[in-house]
Design the sequence.
């Protein structure tokens, strides 16, 4: 039986990683490097790393290379690669982005769920995506394709899956209006001058549900923001033994800050 997970930040992270993976599928192999990138499993194309990692990009790359082979020797052929990192703390979203439900709202989680007292804080979270390749053209192409995916209006929001009292439902994550990541180029030490690295920094906003107690509400009204969904899988993100998103991704770089 699925565990109740309402209010857990882990669900927010998993949902955005899933959204990003869909965008990565649109990257076209315009270079030989990107052909190799597309041929690899997604777990070797994208890695979730602890906290915000732009200041530790050298350490992360070295760990990525040495952790990918038995001899602890650099395997530069693994590039290109993308990293995703989340800030350590979420915060209240600006009022301009919408009002939270701070008083219990009576909502139906699914068509057959009955009604529950629900609060929905409106939160904001910092995200960083890093694009790494041996050549500028490959790194730029990766960034451009993901940018085009994110900038399509239909992709400005994505579902976040929740489970409570035997019912699956969803809220949504979203970009700010006029979404435009803060982009920067990262320099490595001279001995790694053949590597091109770009990073994006931006925020996402979302509503995460808190449900009062474990009993159904008495008032029979239906609120907004929550919609029923069919039970879905998360493309192998969850590792049942570690409770981390696909523990194989980051065995070499530690806990992913769940």
Sequence:
């Amino acid at each position: 039986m699925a565990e109740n997970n309402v209010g857990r930040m882990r669900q927010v992270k998993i949902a955005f990683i899933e959204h990003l993976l869909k965008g990565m599928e649109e990257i076209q192999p315009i270079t030989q490097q990107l052909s190799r990138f597309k041929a690899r499993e997604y777990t070797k194309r994208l890695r979730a790393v602890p906290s915000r990692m732009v200041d530790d990009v050298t350490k992360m790359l070295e760990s990525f290379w040495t952790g990918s082979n038995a001899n602890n020797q650099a395997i530069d052929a693994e590039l290109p690669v993308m990293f995703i990192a989340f800030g350590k703390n979420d915060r209240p979203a600006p009022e301009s982005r919408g009002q939270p439900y701070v008083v219990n709202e009576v909502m139906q989680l699914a068509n057959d769920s009955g009604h529950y007292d629900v609060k929905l804080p409106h939160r904001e979270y910092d995200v960083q995506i890093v694009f790494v390749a041996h050549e500028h053209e490959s790194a730029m192409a990766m960034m451009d394709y993901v940018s085009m995916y994110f900038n399509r209006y239909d992709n400005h929001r994505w579902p976040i899956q929740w489970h409570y009292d035997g019912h699956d439902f969803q809220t949504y994550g979203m970009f700010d209006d006029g979404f435009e990541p803060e982009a920067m180029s990262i320099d490595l030490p001279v001995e790694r001058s053949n590597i091109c690295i770009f990073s994006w920094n931006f925020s996402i906003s979302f509503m995460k549900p808190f449900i009062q107690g474990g009993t159904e509400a008495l008032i029979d009204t239906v609120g907004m923001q929550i919609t029923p969904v069919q039970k879905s899988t998360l493309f192998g993100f969850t590792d049942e033994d570690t409770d981390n998103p696909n523990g194989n991704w980051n065995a070499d770089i530690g806990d992913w800050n769940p």
Remarks:
- The two ends are 22 Å apart (CA to CA).
